[in-house]
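User: Run a structure prediction on this.
Assistant: Running it now.
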Amino acid sequence: MKQYLKLLMVREAKEVLGRGGSNLWLLTLVLVATFTSIAFSEGSMAYLEDKMADPFTNWVSINKDTVSNNKFNDFREQLLKPEMADSFDYRDVLMDQYLGLNIQGPNNGRIEYLSIRFFEHLQTPIVNTILEERNIADGCYVDSTLLIDKTMGFIVTIDALKRLGYNSDSVPAYINYLSPVNEEHAHDLNMDSLGLVPTDSTKKYLPVALPVLAVVRKLPNNVSMVSANFFYEQYHYNDVTNPFAVTSHVSDYLHHLIYWVNDEVGQDKFTQFVKQQAPKDIEVSVYDESKRYLYMKSWKSGKILTIDVGGEHQGIEVFKAVDKAINSHWNEFHVQRVFDFDTYEMPSPRSDYLSVEFRSLKHIREFESFANKKGISLEMEKVHSMENFHAVTVMAGILSAAMVIFSIVCIIMFMVNMLQSYFQKVKRNLGTFKAFGMNSSELIKVYIIILVAIVSTGVILALLITWGIQWLLPVMGIEKEGFNYLLLWNPTTYIATAVIFVSTIFTVIFVMTRLLSQTPGDLIYDRN
């Protein structure tokens, strides 16, 4: 009997497959549609989840200029209460500033006016999210311990660097902010050695190297850079305290030689070179002061070294000669001159924005109503966009489940029709088998094995085809912000596959039990 059942299984499998394996290919096509639907649904969900977790989606920015100072401050005080954060599901409230600065590209090249947002603190959830691995470009980021509130550094977008003339092979450790200098003062103070950049007949600019903390793909509100509020505070005070007011600090700039030195160059090599450039009768010392200048640390590995050329009493020509030699020997990617800024502890002169970062968007409409009652108007387009993201996420989850259920129902209906059609062809033979003593359970087992084998083959082929499509899409440039439209390998796929096999077994048992319930005579003589 076992040998007979094996022969029956082989012969009947060919019949179930259909002519040329048509039933297998049709089943595979249905499974490809099923897995593609699941993969597309999961890919869409992954993209939506990413957007929902995106700091630029969950971030509301309120411009102070749109309301009175009293209303603005009162609203901020309300938002700082813990119970308010719990009620509206936000996790951070910041006072931010906005500024535009002239930034220069490599080798005294292109000058761009870039927008900068200054955060009240750098150790905040939104900055942590900005510096997540998915948003970091080319692996350029500073150690989180260096994200101090007194940093002079910037987090820069890759697009801003491209506009300045940098590329992925030349990401700088520092970028040059151009500090304006009156040309008459520049001439009187003998400042040409600082590498002043002329722009027109009345102004020159001092290129001030400021550290790049990280390079990212995007930043909130489409700004080009973000930094700590500390820079903004120093920048906005008068010429005596402002470290970028060159005319007040020119003596310090001229007599202090401070350099960031790439680790590829190293302190020993740099020291040896500097000593060769100085006059023989002048003692030269080089000191590692990286810890002192922690606020000037960049993402790229290196040290900040100071040069003592026989003391400050030396003539300016000695300092100019050493600096010129260093600039001629090394480019800015290996050695970069920086300055010892005289910084001060001072309160921020003003705040331009109030930023609120939400954990989720469930209560964004209630937050808008609360703000309106306080006389604060939010950007409705932003609120609606955030609300829509939340609604689409819920709908995408429902559609994903619906597509999986619909696909499995289609597969079950296909197998039912296939079995019924096949049964009409072979029921006389099956009646003969039963007449010779073969019971229905043995026949059902045979068909379970046949159908499970066919479904297994179809599932494997469908998974390979869908996986191939998923792999090809990015190669063809068909993707959304780095996200593939298809995401095949996910829990839903595994669950759906298991359900398909379980459904196959139960479908075969149900259909064949009903069809084989007839007597051998009814089957042989086709009596209904």
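The chain has a mean pLDDT of 80.
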